[in-house]
Every structure is written in C-alpha cells, then in structure tokens.
C-alpha cells in the first residue's frame, strides 16, 4: 500500500463522532431520515464542511451539496457522496462513510494546498434507506428524474407524517431545484455490505455495476390431508413440492457460469399450518439477481422451467407473479477505469465486482457518469449494529477516493 | 358382494337424521363434545337403542353402553362403538358411523330373531376428537387406564369450563366406574379418512394396527444476510438448507420398503422473514410414522443422518427435539382374522391395511382384544364438511360388522 495523503486518524475520528449521533449501546446507530437526530447529523456535517471552506446548498428534497470551489468557474464539479440516514438498528458505516470520506478529500486538498480546476462537491442524499419513508433512495431518484418532487414530498411514515413536513420541521427544505445541480462525474464510496472482499482478502472493490433484480410471489396449491392416513405416493404436498423447487432454484443460481447469479427465498408462509396436516396451500417469495439482463432473463426462464417440471411431478399448481423488475446497472467505463487506475498504482489489492445492493449511485448513474468504490465489511455484515470496517479499511477507501477525485478535478 | 342382512336404507337414514343434529349448511356437522348438540345426539342414540330393546348404562366420564342381552348371563359382550362428537367443521360420518352401525347390528339381530350367547354392546366414547377438550380420545383413555378419571374431568375448554362440569350440565355424568364394564372383544368400524381404499378400488379395509408416530421440533440456524451482496457459495441459508433437508426426509419416507413410512412437515416458520434477506433462523415440525417400532426407529436414524449430512454441507446448525412418541399398535390377531374371514366370504373386495390416524380402538386394544374395519372415504377427505362415503359403502361396512359381531356373539 502506498503512502497516504489522507489523515487516517482524522477520518476515523470524524466517523466515530458522527456515529455518536443516534449511537446505540450495542455500538450501532439509529438515525432515521428527517428526525431530530438526522438534523443534528446534518448540522454537524454542514459545520465541518463550512470549517473546511465549503459553500453549502440545499435543494427542495433536502439533499445537501458542499462545494470546494475550483479555479474554472464554468467547470462542472467532480462529486461524491452517500447518505446520512440509517436503518433502525443500523451501523456507523453504511452511507455516512461515503459522505465523511468526501469531507476528508476536501480537508486533505486543503492540507496539501491543492487547487483543482473543477470544483469538488460532497452530497448527502436524503432518505436513502427507506426505513422511515418508502421508497428507498427517493431523493437521488428525484434528482435523476425517476420520481417527481411531489411524489417524494407526499410520502408518509408509519405515523402518517409527510416527508415534506418532516423536512420542513428539521429546517432542511432548501430552495434549489432538485436536479439543477449538475456534476461532471459522480463517485460513491461505500462499505461492501457483503463478504466477498474479506473472503478473497482484497482491500478495494472496483465496482462495475449493480445487479439487476426481479421479485416474484409464488402461490403453491396442493391438497391438504391428514399426515397419518395418506401414503407418501398419494400426496399433493404443497410444502414438499416447494422444498424441492426452492432447492432446484438455489442450485440453478449457484451453477451459473457468471458469478453473479443470486436466488433468495426470504419469506415462506403456510397459512393454516398444523404439524399433523400435509400443507395444501402456501406462498413464498423469490428474489433473482444477475449482473446482466441476459443473465437475468436466463435465470427467469430456467426458474419457469423448474416450476413447470416440479409442479407437474408433485401434482401441485404453482402460480407465479413477477412483482418488481429492476434492470442491471452498468457504471460508466471512464469512471470505473479512473478508479481502477488509481487502485492499481496504489498497491492496494483489489478486484472488479458488482454490487448486489442498491445505492444512490444507481440513480445518479442514469444522468451522470458514475461508479462506486467498496471497502470490506467485516463478516459481510451490514444493516446491523455489529456492522464494522477497520480504521485501516476506512482509510484505504478514503485514500482511493481522494486520489480519484483530485486527479479528475485537476484534469 | 353377498346378500345383505342389514337394512341399507335404514342405516343411511339413521346416519342422516343424526347428522341433522349440528348439521351445517355446507353438508357437514359441528357437534362438539359435551355441548347441547352432543346431548341431543346422545338422547337420540339412547332412544333408538332403548326402542331396539337395549339396556343403557353410563359411566363417570359419560361413556354410553347400550347392551342387547345374550343368553349366557356370565358371558362378556362382543362390543363395538366409536364417538358422537365432531371437529368444529367436521362431517356426518367420522365417529358416529361406527356407533350407528352398532345400532344397525342390533336392529338386524332383532329383525332376524337371532338370540346370541354373548351380549352385543354398542359404546359411545366421550370426547374423541379433542377439539373442545384436549387430549383427544380422553374417555377411552380413562377406560383403558392411560389417564386417571380426575385428570380427564379436570380438563378445561377454551372458556375454562371443566369437562366434568360440562358432562354434568348435559346430564351424562353416570355412576358406573370407568373401565368396570368389560368386553370379550371390541371392533370399531370407521371411515378410512385417507385415500387408499378408494384409489385401490377396495371396498373394505381390514385394519391390522395403527401407525406409531414421533413428533419433532427442528430449529435451523444459519446466517442472515442481504440477498444481493452475498454470492451463493458464501451463504449459510437456513431456508435453503431446510428445503434440501425436507426434500431428503420426504424421499426417505417414500423410498421405504414397507408401505407405511410417512413423513410430514406441516409447519415452517421464518421469524423475521423479509423477501430480500437470506433467512438466518427458522423452525419447522416433523411428523414421522411407521407401522412397526423397528420401522420408526429406522426412520428416526435415517432422519438424524440426513440432518447431520445436510447441515454440515450447508454450514448451518440444526437442533432437533423429539416432543412426542406414540408407539405403533398391532391389533389382536384373533380379531383381525375374525374380520378377514367374514370379508373374504362376503365377496367384498378388501385389503389389510394400517390406520394412520388414532382412534378409541387404540386405547381399548391395550385392555381388550380389538381390531378395526374401514370403509372408503371419498377423495380421502375427512375432518371437513365435504367428508362423504356412499350409501353402498356405509351399508357394506355395517354388513361386515353385523356378521362379525353375530358370529362372535353366537360362539
């Protein structure tokens, strides 16, 4: 690993100080979107950025833009950022790491007295998690034109509070048109939230895109019957058929030639389950993912073939409904290459990889050349109070982000 | 099929008239134990039996004994019977068929002017279903010494009403010691409640015993993780492992050389299921049955081997607890042979078979030579308002019971 420009201790301390806002006894963080704690976090971030010489702008959905000016008044900024909100029992790294690493880039540029041609900008995207207000990534969605501003402002939480009202309440209802603030390029640094980098002992993930995903609801109808009087060969066992089907679907995803097949059954419900009754009805969910549209199509076709085959053999009916389709995202080649060039010369070990989870960068990539950088998550754990990355890992990601943004902003 | 002694129309009409007490719009019956409807059913049964010349006795748990005297005052009776209570949404056949077929035996003996050496006795066992008061088959259990009378009388329903109080309320708290009433032999005629006779186009089942069963609770612990960022090979998927295990357990039961292996998973629960999260924890039930203790032991051992193998391969922990063990019941050979002899000469098609469900006859068999006779259940359906057997099937079972009891009582 190369000599560092960034201050490893400073970014770590900054991250820990921010983590105290909403910090939990178990070491995690609960800082739901547009709450008083979110306001405190935003205030602290804004103060730090102002102290580092940034201009602060806020748009009508509460996205915060902290800008370190460049020498060319006409040049679009090189931007980075992520989110400040957490899951209800989240950690101190997911999202906020990417924001504070952006601040560390600015502080380091200041320390080194570097003037860039392009501005450097750090963005906090409102309500990424979707824990308080659905949908997730709503504000970057408005930025990119996926959602209208009215739609986003009228989303309500579990207590029927409007997002727009909560935003006003914490004083972050800005007046800049959402999406009016343009970027030359956007880079998002994030913890991996998965086990790949740690298991493969790689220090940096050069993220080339985000898996597409399709969600399905399946209903399986067999014949409910008494466990005792019904011989095995006479059964139309909805759970037995589903167990066979889930096994086959998982094996199908695991056997794909690409590394990016994912098959998850997260929910399974037997409505009138009783231990001595063969289930006649049940439902389960299916989540299929792949890095390419072709891969996703293949998996869907294979899934349908398995459903047909296994339901016929088991004498049950399976009804499949696709309820959501999110296409794979390929990040901008120039952004991926810019990151890879820096990582390669830095001496950090790395791999190209896809993100399995969604990020604000997915929305931004539809309007601005974008890519992402990952650092390892210990144990692959995230959305959990035990979420952790080491100070060294935190520093290495910030260093890569610094070099990428400096080089891009100088150019 | 041979000429009939019994009156097919009469037994059918008797069954339908009784079914009107608690009869439901959908054609089923709801006559819960020790309710006003149970009392009405008992009163009607007692009236019919008295009209047929029977002496009525009632014991302290409400079992009703209707006796047609024999010529030998010292001879123990040949007895039959079943239960009058139903499931909440039960049918018109389960239980009461066996009681009214016993009445038809007596009526036919009267019609034909036959005097038997031994008395003929028809018994109604209180609270067989266990729907209102747990456990099921409680009164035949007291008769056979499995439960104490106090235990049974102190069981309470969902409204905290004692069984003993409900019994008193309907006026069927008799004074005969439970179990004091002895039998020479006991035969129970019942609908099959399964699909075997219908599918194999056999008219009569000569029941040789009842499957033993063992119930287990399984807890599976993997690692919960995000569906997207976690490649298939890194997962410790509690549901994926369970699906594989359930498939293997079902295949194991289906592949047994005996015909009597049963494996049922009736309940499966994912406590914090979410469609895009790999399940880290779940529980499911397992019900294993076999006709012999050796078979049941074999199945349990094979299940443990499959659990060990699949949990190791999947990287999950499986905790298994056996929560109930009910040994297989072999009925008395002399009773089985008595039935088979009659069926064979009758011309009805038949097969020897085991019962997968429990019956009062299981309890009685521990103190008296006992066996059972089955007639087909249309569609194998029972404990359901659509439960049905045809008038011909009802008549054929009653005819077999008649001949068996007549021959045994004459001997």
Structural notes for this entry:
The structure is a homodimer of 411-residue chains. By secondary structure, the first copy, chain A, is of the alpha+beta class. In chain A, 35% of the residues lie in helices and 21% in strands. Chain A has 12 helices and 16 strands. In chain A, the strands form 3 sheets. In chain A, strands 1, 2, 3, 4, 5, 6, 14, 15 and 16 form a 9-stranded mixed sheet that branches. In chain A, strands 7, 9, 10, 12 and 13 form a 5-stranded antiparallel sheet that branches. The model of chain A has no long low-confidence stretch (mean pLDDT 96).
Core attributes:
elongated; 35% helix; 411 residues; homodimer; Alpha-Beta Plaits; alpha+beta; 12 helices; five-stranded antiparallel sheet
Cα radius of gyration of chain A in angstroms: 24 Å
- The CATH architecture of the largest domain in chain A can be named as 3-Layer(aba) Sandwich
Q: Name the pair of protein chains with the most residues at their interface, and give those residue counts.
A: A-B, 59 and 59 residues
How many β-strands of chain A, per DSSP?
16
Fold-level CATH name of the largest domain in chain A: Aminopeptidase
Distance between the termini of chain A: 24 Å
